[in-house]
Amino acid sequence: MKLLSLFCGCGGLDRGFESAGFATELAYDLRPNSVKSWIKNTCQGKAMVRDVTTLTNEVLDHDYGDEFKPDGVIGGPPCQGFSSANRKGSVGDPRNQLVVSFFNIALSLHKRRQLKFIVMENVPAIKGKRGGDLLDKQMVRLKKAGFEIYVDVLNAQNYQVPQRRKRLFLIAINSTFTKEFTFKFPEPLSTTLTVRDAIYGLPEPMKFRPGLTQSDIKFHQNHWCMQPKSEKFKSGVLKEGYTGRRSFKTLFWDQPSYTASYGNREVHIHPSGKRRLSVYEAMLIQGFDPKTRLMGTMSEQITQVSEAVPPPLGKAVAVQLTNFFRHSG
User: Beta-carbon neighbour count of residue 115 at 10 Å?
Assistant: First the structure.
């Protein structure tokens, strides 16, 4: 089934859906290097740098090269306004309206071309005080347009991702397919991966220095990190599991990582306590394939990792959609 991907970032959600048999035909994001990463790692479809709020059916047709009739729309609108990690977030944060833009585009497509489904991913706090009644209003719109709505919060650690990361998924399915069958979210798997499973035994990453380029990094072009500067890296205070300072959370080897939400390059501390994770290690903790390559500066790469949907989590949802449509016809 063909997909439109909005706020695609470096393609975590798309990678998950593609591994379940879907095909992203068009993808959009405002950040150029995120789009370059998407193109670098995705064999099919087109990804373009555009302000999602400016998209229309006509623009989609133009970019596709024909009348664009996707089966589904997927995406994770920016969530900083809702996130509890953002101390200044609020109901009035202008970024919250990007959720409305996501559904505006999806419903405009549906009105003319009948979508089978819509999938939106976001932080659970979108249903809290910071989200206000925004999500409820969108659900009313979806129901009026003929969709059945399914909402649940999934934890990535239950789906082969070595990270505790809770995310809300809203699945809207065209009610013509729900008369006899009900969509079911994926059940948690019996095994849990740890930080050790993801990154143990890797060589030391390259430390950033002026003039260092990704081509200089021999093991993997994203296996680099900042030079450790704080005295904490030398004093021994950064033991496994240290959480005394928010910006110095130190990972356990034998537990899943804390949520990979990195601000101002404050990536979690490696279990050794000697440095922060490399971008490549953070990618593995997010569940990306080791062959993935991210483009841009180190800061841009960290943002791409931080904002991505873990591909295995996306795949778990996509497989359930595949199973649903296989049975519903």
Answer: 23
- Conformational region of residue 155, where left means phi above 0, alpha means psi within -120 to 50, and beta covers everything else: beta
Residue whose C-alpha is closest to residue 241's, from 229, 255, 222: 255
79 is annotated as an active-site residue: yes
Short-list 227, 262, 258, 228, CA closest to 243: 258
Active-site position among 8, 10, 43, 79 = 79
Q: Which of 131, 111, 199, 164 lies closest to 313, judged by CA? A: 164
Segments of the chain scoring below 70 in pLDDT: 43, 80-95, 130-131, 264-265, 329
What DSSP assignment string belongs to 259-298? P---STT-PPBPTTSSSBPPHHHHHHHTT--TT----S-H
DSSP 155: E
Q: What is the pLDDT of residues 22-42, one digit of tens each?
A: 999 999 999 999 999 999 997
Tokens of 61: 């047709």
Residue 257 φ/ψ, nearest 5 degrees: -70, 160
* Residues 159 and 313 sit within 8 Å (Cβ to Cβ): yes
Instruction: Measure the CA–CA gap between 300 and 290, rounded to whole angstroms.
Output: 19
Residues 100 and 326: their CA atoms lie apart, in Å, by 30
**3-state SS assignment for residue 304:** helix
Cα–Cα distance list, 85 to 95, 123, 163, 171, 267 (Å): 15, 10, 16, 25, 14
**pLDDT for res 214:** 79
- E-state strands within the chain: 2-6, 23-29, 46-49, 72-75, 117-122, 147-155, 166-174, 206-207, 224-225
Q: C-alpha distances in angstroms, 121 versus 78, 153, 275?
A: 10, 9, 31
pLDDT recorded at residue 218: 87
Paired tokens of 205: 């990453």
Task: Give the domain 2-186+309-323 fold.
Answer: Rossmann fold (3.40.50)
pTM above 0.85, yes or no: yes
